[in-house]
Fold this sequence. Notes:
3-stranded antiparallel sheet, mainly beta, 4% helix
Amino acid sequence: MKAFLTGQVIELKEVGDGVFSEGVMGEGVAILPETDILYAPADAKVSVLMQESRHACGLTLANGVELLLHVGIDTVDMKGDGFQYLVSEGQKVKAGTPLRRFDREKIRAAGHPDTTVCIITDAAETKSAQFHTGIRGEANVTVVADIQS
């Protein structure tokens, strides 16, 4: 799985939100973004788009693993302001396909961190997942997770 944004790659526990950081939704990784376009971290099908809030989307990999990509913390209350989808539900995407544009300034002006997480919500046949944190990730280049199935 490649970096879905350019920025500092951190462990979920560093997010500090009580849901993602505690692993309630699953294992994953977060990025402190330097850019405003979220990319697909792997080849997948766009399985869920949050049409009203546009702050999150779900991807399903070929092996059945389901990912949640969530831009910002508590950004659902922005009701889509500052978020734009670049894909459609059901669309097949390749690693590196732009999924969403977001306005980092609007997120911060609304009082939210723009920390973006990628969570494995359904591990399917996954045997293990290893996350690479404490590094600067470059979108579509840096490997941020190895998922073994």
